[in-house]
């Protein structure tokens, strides 16, 4: 008995230490970024265009570009992901074909982002002739985060009690109306969880937008979805590979990373607040 309790306590201790190690690593990363980047943050840095070979000025075009690309990616992936999850969880009959589809979705979630970048370059930039623009980058990022949203949405739909569906169908409501009015509203908090993960990945990716949307430098803001944009991840890459002027741009690099982290956390926080509000209104 004592040996069993000893093993149990050892396991709990290991789990707690692992959680603390992860929290410490994340905290250390954030402290390091803040300590090195806070000095670069100013109103000028947040609202002006870069100038003097991007060693001075601000990152306002990159902030807007990142927001446009992320919003476009989520707007693309969320409807497709939820629709796919509804089919897989509510309509599809279990069989070899559905298992292959699920395996494919899981495999796509692990595909390197550079592959999605080349896919977007070949399909949207070259074949469909959209060119390097917001639309091409947003669609590429949308396909990048699509597997994550499909997986999270499918699990959220499965978590809704089957009795909800049976009660609705028993009252004569059609299957589609049951899904739309009963299942989806109760699954929305879980679907938002997948969206939060997608937002974080879409906002931080460099390789996909490098081929499809990001401009090295531009002096004007985009006027349409067919214009190139600057983006925070690519801007960090540009500053970090600026040849002999790397040391001059070091504070700007950390400042840009800090703004990117703050932007992602801010968007995620809004989604988390909405999700928490929805969970409080649940009746089960």
Shape: globular
Share of residues in strands:
under 5%
SS content category = mainly alpha
**Order of strands in the sheet with the most strands?**
1-2
Highest CATH level, the class: Mainly Alpha
Query: What percent of residues adopt helix (DSSP H or I)?
Result: over 70%
For the record, the CATH architecture stands as Orthogonal Bundle
CATH topology: MetI-like fold
Overall number of domains: 1
Low-confidence stretches: none
H/E topology pattern: HHEEHHHHHHHHH
**Helix count?**
11
Largest sheet data: 2 strands, antiparallel
How many strand segments? 2
Q: Quick one: CATH superfamily?
A: MetI-like
End-to-end gap: 39 Å
Q: Name the average pLDDT.
A: 87
User: Using only CA atoms, what is the Rg?
Assistant: 23 Å
Report on this model:
The protein starts with a helix and ends with a helix. The chain has one domain: MetI-like fold (Orthogonal Bundle), CATH 1.10.3720.10. The longest helix has 36 residues. It is mainly α and 284 residues long.
Write the layout of secondary structure elements.
Elements: H1 2-37, H2 43-47, E1 50-51, E2 56-57, H3 60-91, H4 96-109, H5 113-127, H6 134-159, H7 162-170, H8 175-204, H9 207-212, H10 232-240, H11 246-280
Antiparallel strand pairs: 1-2
In short:
The protein contains 11 helices and 2 strands; from the N terminus they run ααββααααααααα.
């Amino acid at each position: 008995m004592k040996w069993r309790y000893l093993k149990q306590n050892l396991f709990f201790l290991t789990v707690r230490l692992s959680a603390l190690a992860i929290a410490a690593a994340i905290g250390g990363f954030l402290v390091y970024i803040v300590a090195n980047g806070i000095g670069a943050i100013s109103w000028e840095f947040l609202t002006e265009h870069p100038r003097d070979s991007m060693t001075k000025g601000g990152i306002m075009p990159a902030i807007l570009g990142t927001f446009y690309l992320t919003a476009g990616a989520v707007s693309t992936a969320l409807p497709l992901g939820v629709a796919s999850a509804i089919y897989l969880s509510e309509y599809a009959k279990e069989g070899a074909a559905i298992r292959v589809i699920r395996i494919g979705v899981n495999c796509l979630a692990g595909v390197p982002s550079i592959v999605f970048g080349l896919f977007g370059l070949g399909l949207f930039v070259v074949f469909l002739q959209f060119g390097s623009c917001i639309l091409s980058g947003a669609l590429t990022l949308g396909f990048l985060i699509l597997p994550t949203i499909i997986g999270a949405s499918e699990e959220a739909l499965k978590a809704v009690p089957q009795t909800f569906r049976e009660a609705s169908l028993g009252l004569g409501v059609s299957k589609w109306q049951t899904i739309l009015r009963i299942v989806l509203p109760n699954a929305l908090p879980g679907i938002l969880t997948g969206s939060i993960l997608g937002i974080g990945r879409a906002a931080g990716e460099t390789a996909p937008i490098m081929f499809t949307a990001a401009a090295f430098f531009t002096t004007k803001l985009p006027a349409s979805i067919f214009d190139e944009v600057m983006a925070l991840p690519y801007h960090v890459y540009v500053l970090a590979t600026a040849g002999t002027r790397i040391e001059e741009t070091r504070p700007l690099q950390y400042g840009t990373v800090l703004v990117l982290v703050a932007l992602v956390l801010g968007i995620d926080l809004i989604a988390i607040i909405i999700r928490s509000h929805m969970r409080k209104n649940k009746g089960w």
